[in-house]
Amino acid sequence: MSFRATVLTLYPEMFPGPLAVSLAGRAKASGTWSLEAVQIRDFATDKHRSVDDTPAGGGAGMVMRADVLARAIDHAAPEGDPRPKLLMSPRGIPLTQARVRQLATGPGAVILCGRFEGVDQRLIEARALEEVSIGDYVLSGGEPAALVLLDAVVRLLPGVMGNESSGTEESFESGLLEHPHYTRPQNFEGGEIPEVLLSGNHRRIAEWRLAEAEKITRERRPDLWAAYQEAAKSK
Ligand code: SAH
């Protein structure tokens, strides 16, 4: 069964964009996943085809209308559609590799991309949208966020990555950031490849990589480090 993505957007021309090339593009061409970009404006009913209006209570900017968005969502995901409905949003739960992995084992996703100040709250509640953030910064629209999410999901779909194990040994999968990498040349501007990596001793190499991963996680991500130590305790 292939992973089916439907993206609701005011800019369908932004899709598949970068997802048409490389791993994701090949996987799409071979039917591992599919992508449909739906133009939200097609579900507007007034003669100006408006999708947004001024915010209740006043203030700057515009808000996407609940009625137009509801029609677009109901068209894209009729009753009984098993796919989760996501709203890209800086107020959402931050996206994690764990959530990405869950999505990749599911039937697909319906992804709503916000624009302007965001979307009417009643729509979020009425269609039980899961708000997902890709980080603590503000984009001008949900489209780049949807591309990020899909990129992360698609690379985990069966058969997409050549070397299956590289999917499970990466940053976040073990709760740690990844160890550093080296390749030829052996000497680069005076810098040598760490001796242990040339030793051929797989146990020592694994120990070195784990120690490096722990060091970099401790230095850069106290939050991940604390969670990792907590998990180690309960093992
Ligand atoms: N007024 C909003 C920001 C709107 S940005 C606020 O202060 O919270 C416009 C749209 O861009 C949002 O509706 C959302 O779809 C998208 N977007 C912006 N930043 C994002 C982020 N960090 N993660 C996911 N989507 C984001």
TrEMBL record:
GO terms for biological process: methylation. Its main location: cytoplasm. NCBIfam families: PRK00026.1 (NF000648), trmD (TIGR00088). SUPFAM superfamilies: alpha/beta knot. It holds the Pfam family tRNA_m1G_MT. One of its GO terms (molecular function) is tRNA (guanine(37)-N1)-methyltransferase activity. Residues 4-226 form the tRNA methyltransferase TRMD/TRM10-type domain. This is tRNA (guanine-N(1)-)-methyltransferase. The keyword Cell membrane does not apply. InterPro entries: Alpha/beta_knot_MTases (IPR029028), tRNA_m1G_MeTrfase_C_sf (IPR023148), tRNA_m1G_MeTrfase_TrmD (IPR002649), tRNA_m1G_MTases_N (IPR029026), tRNA_MeTrfase_TRMD/TRM10 (IPR016009). It is found in: Cytoplasm. Its EC number is 2.1.1.228. S-adenosyl-L-methionine binds at residues 114, 134-139. Homodimer. Specifically methylates guanosine-37 in various tRNAs. HAMAP family: TrmD. It catalyses: guanosine(37) in tRNA + S-adenosyl-L-methionine = N(1)-methylguanosine(37) in tRNA + S-adenosyl-L-homocysteine + H(+). It comes from the Bacteria. Belongs to the RNA methyltransferase TrmD family. Keywords: Cytoplasm, Methyltransferase, S-adenosyl-L-methionine, Transferase, tRNA processing. It is an enzyme of class 2 (transferase).
